[in-house]
Amino acid sequence: MTAILLALTIGLPWVGGLIAWWAGDRRRRMLLGSAAVFSVAGGLASIGLVLNSGSSVVIRIALGGAFGDLTFVPDGLGVFLAAVANVVGCLAVIFSFDYMRHERQLGRYYALVLLFIGAMSGLVLTGSLLFLFFFWEITAFCSYALISFHNDDPKAVAGGVKALIITSLGGVGLLAASLAIHANTGSYDIDVFLTQAGSLAPATLALIAFGVLAAAAAKSAQVPFHTWLPDAMEAPTPISALIHAATMVNAGVYVLARFFPAFSPVPGWQTSVVIVGLVSALLAGILALAVSDIKRVLAYSTISQLGYMVAAIGFGAVLASQFHLLSHALFKALLFLGAGAVIHSVGTRDMRQMGGLRREMPFVRWTFLIGALALAGLPIVNGFWSKEAILEAGLEAGLLWAYLGLLLGAGLTALYTFRAYWMVFEGAAATPREVHDAPSAMRISLLLLAIGCLTSWLLAGPFGRLLALTLPFHALHPVTTLELVVDVVSHPSTALALFVVFAGLACWVLRARLARIPAVLARAGFLTSSDFGFEPLNKLVVRLTNGAASWLGRTQTGQLNWNIAGIAGGLSLVLAVILIWGS
Amino acid sequence: MIQLLLAVAAIGCAVQAVRSGRLLGSALWLAGVSAIVALSFFLMGAPQVAVIELSVGAGLVTVLFVFSIGIAGDEPVETQSIVPRLVGIVLSLAASALAALFVLPVAVARAPTAEPAFSDVLWGGRGLDVLLQLVLIFSGVLGVLSLLTEGEAPAHPSIMVREVPKELAELTELSLEEERR
Amino acid sequence: MTSEPLTYVLVGVIGLFGVGLYALLTVRNLIKVIVALQILAKSALLALVAAGYAGGVVQVGQSIAVTLIVADTIVAVVGLALAVQIRRRMGTLDVGELSSLRG
């Protein structure tokens, strides 16, 4: 039963993708119908899988000695991310019906989205390291293809290429780690590695640990690999909601959580993770204050919140980090889709040209507000509980500097969130215009996500139990929802955090009085516009990669005889190597 | 001894096939190689494959070559090789020598053990191979048919390229620009 | 059906392999390239049957060789059809000039 559900979770989106590709623009009704049916079916299958999770392998396909077994394990960590991918994916697909109504080549669009959803489910459900890498690269490809969906727009193409290069370079770290693990334990199986991690040589384990950290940082857009995410905002907004908020960027956090029991003894690893998370949280928070493009604000906010999750893993609080991942997926998707509704009707992404939309777009305004409250971390909404859990974990881990940094980050979060909300919905309209509220397909997705934001924190108890029961290596200690509520409400750090959040709010409300501060900071504007120096660095890396590619291109002469010469040379080399080093 | 003569003869025919100035000559020398190889098979106790090789290699393939040379024409082509001849000799010598180091030590022939008949092995033991051969033949026929149909096939619009009439393209561009922002 | 050493047959295998490889490296006429591929295939066939003979399992060696003959003939057929079409469209069979898959 579980095996069937698992196969459906991965397979239904892929089948839907194939049908969507075949249907294309010519059979639009079949295209939209198949996309809807298969994504909803995938969502239902993944929810069914959540109810059927376990910690043993349910699908095992033996592939011969070199590749090991392709295994799928429906443990808590995997099924909840698969459910997030499928459910948010299904909502993004429904949202796209209205958002992408006037676009062309939608067969390619829906096929890639469905392919991505299936690949993401496969990534989190597989128990084989080699296939984790394989699915990882599929998601990177889909992300590139969808960012540069408008392939006649040079900015979109540049953004897609940049995302591909940076995440793939990070993926090299993951590949190196998998090969090292295979060389040392003889198998690609993750559970085998977690069992034997203690017996590896310390230097090897450190190499593997930092390789995985690099790959996770690149995928989850953490410093120093964070510059691709803001540029990825050239993608259509439902894609930004799905890939760059709710699913693909979570792959990095997932990998860190999955391997945490193996890497936590490595000296310096947990501290590095905390530093990476903290720096990303603060840096991105500052940068979010400096931009006026609403999607860029949300992109920096994603980097910042991922920093919180990464730091939580560094503190050892895997449960808190995954809980925040769940909340973040819901409220960030909600914010992105709400922003998408606004962009679709106003026609621009620049917040300075919006304003006063609460009158014309009340539905979007309320759902966006719920998402904003969740992001800022105000009580009742899910973001509050998960963020408090992370802050408490920081305090308990004894890393006061990290705790204070994250606290400051919470204030920054409140500030930029309300700046964004206010600039879009409150105040006076910047330019006279004709706008309409969100059409019905968009409303369905927004409503469901808003309900999720208001209620997902109630699942904290079952969620914790799910993870604790199915992850034998992690030694998690779950609490019931009531215990969590009482704990958070009574902990002194909560009061402190709420104070900082309201201070952030107050800064915005009183911005007229504090006007001198922005004026002074504006002189340092060059810092933020070059992303604190990371942007030129990344441009350099991209330029070097493209240069190496064109230089290597010269070996492709197109002459048959030279190609054969290459084959013959390679053959001689392989034979010689076997002769010299073979048994 | 006979095998040595056959081996030398086969190599000689192959060299002539490569060196021949006319394509028709190459095809005929290739038929010679086929015949010699078939004889070698027969002497090794494999009469069935010898017959098949003779009829297919020396028969069918040669006829096909002659046929296509007739259609494509036998004009001489530039003989100056692109890869320098020295590089060619060195590479092929290196690859053959290394392969020889692997292959030549296996020199001893054992007396044939009791084996099922050829047809049993082919249809029973290698049944999957036969199925695959059928698929191959089918796809080969399809390939040849699609290659040899007369007339220009219309260029299929690439999936990645938008081809629209100019006015429509301009209108679409404007509205897409607005929505993209 | 003698049990004389197989060395001579294997000499033939290596020799044909070398000639075929050299031909692939140096010829410029597309049809000659297909001839060279055929020579390489003959060397593989010899090796297969010889291996079967050496192991005492000639029938298995033969069966695999039959598969190879079929596959290789298909390659020749489709290759020749391609060559004919290329001659029609591009006007030349010179491999040196058919090089549009350039980096």
Explain what this protein looks like in three dimensions.
Helices cover 74% and strands 1% of the residues of chain A. Chain A is an all-alpha fold. Chain B has a domain at 1-76: NADH-ubiquinone/plastoquinone oxidoreductase chain 6, subunit NuoJ (Four Helix Bundle (Hemerythrin (Met), subunit A), Up-down Bundle). Chain B is built from seven helices and no strands. Chain B has helices spanning 2-19, 23-43, 47-72, 85-103, 118-125, 127-148, 166-180. Chain B starts with a helix and ends with a helix. The model of chain B is unreliable at 153-163 (pLDDT under 50). The longest helix of chain C is centred in the last third of the chain and has 33 residues, at 58-90. Chain C has a single domain, classed as Helix Hairpins (Orthogonal Bundle). With 103 residues, chain C is mainly alpha-helical. Chain A binds chain B through residues 102-105, 108, 150-153, 343-344, 347-349, 559, 561-562, 564-565, 568-569, 571-572, 575-576, 579, and chain B through 81-83, 87-88, 91-92, 94-95, 98-99, 101-102, 159-160, 162, 172, 175-176, 178-181.
